[in-house]
Amino acid sequence: MLEVLYEDNHFIAINKRCGELVQSDKTGDEPLEEKVKQYIRNKYDKSGNVFLGVTHRIDRPVSGVVLFARTSKALSRINNLFQEKKVKKTYLAIVQQCPPDKAATLEHYIRRNEQKNKSYVFATEVKNSRKAILHYKLLSQSDRYYLLEIDLETGRHHQIRCQLAAIGCPIRGDLKYGYPRSNENGGIDLHSYKIAFIHPVTHLPIEITAPVPDDKLWNFFAKNVGLVSSVSKRM
Q1: For the domain that residue 24 is a member of, what is the CATH number?
Q2: Is residue 140 part of a domain?
Q3: What is the pLDDT of residue 18?
Q4: pLDDT in tens, 135-146
Q5: Residue 86 sits in which domain range?
Q6: Within-domain flag for 151
Q7: Cα 61 from Cα 41, distance rounded (Å)
Q8: Rounded-to-integer distance, Cα 139 and Cα 130, Å
Q9: What is this structure's pTM?
Q10: Are 225 and 139 in contact (CB under 8 A)?
Q11: How far is 170 from 7, CA to CA, in rounded Å?
Q12: Most CB atoms closer than 10 Å: which of 6, 25, 36, 215?
């Protein structure tokens, strides 16, 4: 079942589960994009092709809000907002190592290796690298883990994952970037928590929040910090 967070004539936002693809790839697994098309087809009794535009992506092991456009006009306009950096995306990450500062801006240069599907971090510009900037702050801690809030200024491949790893804070479960153990569900504890923008058609402010995954650690932090959780939503 899809968890629909927001829906109007122009956009639909889904709370993606970790392990789901946003778009199809070589695995052949059914992507979230196709599931949303089927949802629209069934709900509105549409026949034939259903238009659905992917406005941004999050990695397969990552959970959280994904925004789709329901019309070509909406897709074009939201793409412009992304290019103008007028869409704010907020992530939450659980790490085991305390970051060096309670709040900081990370600036690196990132180079993607497509064959390995991995990005590498450099302190200075190197060939084929792109500048990457994010801002983080420490929200809470448990006896073993730390919860970080991350605001992206740029949107590079695996940016949050490799930048946090570069300061000694790989995300819980992220074997690719140095965490020693995988999570039971195969995902990583990185959650696309919130997306905010001015609706390009209605011109109203939109803020969409995705409840955090329903597990013991996320629920602990949700209760401690006052995050929206799947548990509170069911209650």
Answers
A1: 3.30.2350.10
A2: yes
A3: 95
A4: 999 999 999 999
A5: 4-230
A6: yes
A7: 27
A8: 28
A9: 0.95
A10: yes
A11: 34
A12: 36
